[in-house]
Amino acid sequence: MKKILIINGHPDKESYCFAIHKAYKKGVLNSDATLKEITIRDLKFNPNLEFGYRKRTELEPDLLEAQKKIKWADHIVWIYPVWWGSYPAILKGFIDRVFLPGFAFQKRENSVWWDKLLEGKTARIISTLDQPAWYYRWINKHPSHTSIKKLTLNFVGIKKVSFTTVGSLRLSKVSYREKWLQKIEELGIEKL
Predict the structure, then answer these.
(1) Domain CATH code at residue 165
(2) pTM over 0.90
(3) pLDDT digits (tens, 9 = 90+) for 96-117
């Protein structure tokens, strides 16, 4: 039985990303997978990695629980809006504070190389845009996708990463958004 974790990185609970979260969750609940969730906006933590890696900052209880859920999961679904070519600051702060040495990776002594501690997991990124998805990919070179896939997930050992990009939302009709929610629900049922 697949273990799926949804991580919602949108700070506004009234957002379309929360509708996406609900649709994906509905799909998972209609499959034979088990589900856990992290809604970053509800966590109590300082998103600032105050001392970098020079000095350890103790993790808040919500972040320790998030680490347990990430370790538990086979498949991690990240949901976020693309703002200024990246993801919201709260999601970046979450990654900075949670994906630490000893948990997500471990640098090797006297080496430029590191051990990837989250190998064997897969991920899906579901992001929303206020521009057409093709424009974001071909003209802007999809910077948030590159960042989260190559510089975060691949770095810690999560090699298989799929993308679902919904856009343009800003001028979209209700029928467009509802059609996407149906597609997202079907993704939740997918065999991984």
Answers:
(1) 3.40.50.360
(2) yes
(3) 999 999 999 999 999 999 999 9
Domain interval for residue 185: 3-189
Q: The sheet that has 122-128: what strands, in order across it?
A: 34-39, 3-8, 75-81, 122-128, 160-166
Total domain count for the chain? 1
